[in-house]
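Here is the promised in-class demo. Please do not try to memorize the tokens; focus on the logic of going from shape to residues.
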């Protein structure tokens, strides 16, 4: 599965009483589907997934899946502390039609998270997962930072296709990219080298009167013919293969451009929840080889991203969304809403970044 581009890890809207507000979630997803983002991540850290019940997580996944456009890659945050529960949620996401599972590093028993523990955890999940898996490293939240050497070793597993590296350490990104260059994989893409999802193929086949059988995610990834210019028609859609290797995505918007320069292929950015186009413009300029423009676009969002996401966190991000026309709304306890002064600061920071 191609993971190049920008992915917003969407928030979970709540009513003032703390119950999930699924109509607003649906509206947000429909709006993201009209932006140039490559896909959508449900149940990431920004989605307050750790504060949701199991049923609420499933309802968020279902609502997001039903509202998302067919051409957007859908990533489900399915990481729970145990491998067993992680697999249960991953299997449900696969049943709904998600494309990738994002599994954060287990961290509660930090002192026991030795390399052997992490290797066993991720290999067990990847062996049994019906979806391709990406590792999710977020040491600022978990207190555990997965070593580069461990990522390189895990990258050998055919069903571990990438990592979301949210530490903000550009040199670590460089080391992971260099250490996994030998991994040769390919993904099915469109004729114009965008991601192909099973939902796209189903929609294309229905449009051509060919039925509408859902193609498995496994059919979209592979190790043979890593790069091919040959065009094939599948379910009425022109496709080709693109070499992707082990895909490194980052999670710090203020470090996006330098991370792309050292080999990251995309990003899962909380800042994209409020400013998807501003984040995409950095990626697009870099992809087109206009490094000066990419750096100018990066400078534009660096301070707002650091303050709103890095320091004010989910309450700051949700207010930025409200300010930019999405529904952010309340957070769930123990998180607290911003004070009036902090809301004014967020609005000032976002004044020139309207999406």
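The designed amino acids, position by position:
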């Amino acid at each position: 599965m191609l993971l190049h581009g920008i992915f917003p890890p969407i928030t979970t809207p709540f009513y003032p009483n703390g119950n999930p507000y699924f109509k607003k979630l649906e509206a947000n997803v429909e709006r993201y589907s009209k932006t140039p983002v490559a896909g959508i991540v449900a149940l990431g850290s920004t989605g307050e997934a750790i504060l949701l019940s199991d049923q609420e997580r499933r309802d968020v996944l279902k609502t997001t899946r039903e509202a998302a456009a067919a051409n957007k890659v859908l990533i489900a945050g399915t990481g729970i502390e145990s491998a067993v529960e992680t697999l249960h949620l991953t299997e449900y996401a696969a049943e709904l039609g998600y494309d990738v599972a994002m599994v954060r590093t287990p961290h509660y028993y930090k002192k026991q998270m030795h390399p052997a523990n992490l290797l066993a955890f991720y290999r067990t999940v990847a062996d049994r997962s019906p979806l391709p898996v990406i590792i999710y490293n977020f040491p600022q939240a978990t207190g555990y930072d997965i070593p580069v050497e461990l990522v390189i070793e895990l990258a050998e597993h055919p069903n571990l296709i990438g990592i979301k590296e949210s530490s903000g350490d550009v040199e670590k990104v460089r080391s992971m990219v260099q250490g996994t260059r030998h991994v040769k994989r390919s993904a099915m893409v469109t004729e114009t080298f965008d991601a192909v999802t099973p939902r796209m193929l189903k929609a294309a086949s229905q449009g051509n009167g060919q039925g509408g059988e859902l193609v498995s995610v496994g059919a979209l990834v592979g190790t043979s013919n890593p790069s091919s210019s040959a065009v094939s028609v599948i379910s009425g859609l022109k496709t080709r293969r693109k070499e992707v290797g082990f895909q490194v995505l980052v999670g710090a918007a203020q470090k996006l451009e330098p991370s792309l320069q050292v080999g990251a292929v995309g990003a899962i950015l909380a800042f994209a929840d409020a400013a998807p186009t501003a984040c995409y413009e950095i990626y697009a300029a870099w992809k087109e080889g206009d490094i000066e423009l990419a750096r100018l676009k990066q400078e534009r969002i660096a301070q707002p991203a650091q303050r709103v996401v890095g320091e004010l966190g989910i309450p700051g991000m949700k207010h930025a969304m409200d300010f930019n026309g999405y529904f952010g709304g309340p957070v769930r306890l123990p998180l607290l809403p911003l004070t009036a002064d902090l809301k004014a600061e967020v609005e000032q920071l976002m004044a020139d970044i309207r999406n």
